[in-house]
User: Which sequence fits this backbone?
């Protein structure tokens, strides 16, 4: 399968723990996006990479959130000291970065913070 | 503040009906508008629109953009139960710097098609 993949698909953690999610974009895509989606809402933009450079970061992203894309391929999103309000679906998407810039989404990581 | 507003929020129709979903937007530096279908998992891409008045069509689905009035519609004809999903509209906004773009999503329209 050459689509966007995310790991893990589900994560249950206790409040205060740190969690890390991974996203592998489509191989030739140089843009990678992270979103958060809660029930009844559309995806909320969190951050965006062009290759390894993090170009945009939403003000929704508190200091507890950090994302990296060290070699311009896969990306990780870490949440430190999780809170119950962090419970959501975390979606990753990638796009080619030229021409028609369609985003292709991964299956998401569903985080539940107890 | 930039925003994307979809209407209606939810819609229930019978198989065979035609539906029109609306998306209006207010963004500073519009670049494109995208429609997605979301069932139980991640959104799947339907259309990308960049030019006014040019209809994009895929089977029973079609979409058009009006950049003067700042809205788009998504039409589904002869609906089927498999069309039941949340339909999301997103606007791609240029952030000014080289290669800097951001997508703003609406809350979606939840469509249910009854047999």
Assistant:
């Amino acid at each position: 399968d050459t689509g966007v993949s995310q790991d893990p698909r589900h994560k249950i953690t206790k409040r205060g723990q740190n969690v890390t999610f991974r996203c592998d974009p489509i191989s030739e895509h140089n843009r990678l996006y992270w979103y958060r989606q809660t029930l009844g809402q559309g995806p909320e933009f969190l951050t965006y990479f062009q290759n390894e450079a993090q170009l945009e970061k939403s003000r929704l992203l508190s200091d507890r959130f950090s994302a990296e894309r060290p070699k311009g391929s896969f990306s990780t999103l870490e949440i430190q000291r999780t809170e119950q309000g962090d419970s959501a679906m975390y979606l990753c998407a990638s796009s080619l970065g030229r021409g028609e810039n369609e985003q292709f989404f991964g299956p998401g990581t569903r985080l539940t913070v107890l | 503040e930039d925003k994307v507003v979809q209407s209606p929020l939810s819609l229930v129709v019978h198989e065979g009906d035609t539906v029109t979903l609306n998306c209006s937007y207010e963004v500073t530096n519009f670049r494109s508008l995208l429609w997605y279908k979301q069932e139980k998992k991640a959104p799947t891409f339907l259309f990308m629109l960049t030019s006014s008045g040019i209809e994009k069509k895929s089977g029973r689905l079609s979409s058009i953009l009006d950049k003067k009035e700042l809205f788009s519609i998504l039409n589904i004809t002869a609906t089927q139960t498999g069309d039941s999903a949340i339909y999301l509209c997103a606007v791609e906004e240029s952030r000014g710097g080289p290669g800097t773009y951001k997508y703003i999503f609406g809350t979606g329209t939840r469509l249910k098609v009854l047999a």
Remarks:
- The CA atoms of residues 1 and 31 of chain B lie 17 Å apart.
- Chain B has no helices and eleven strands.
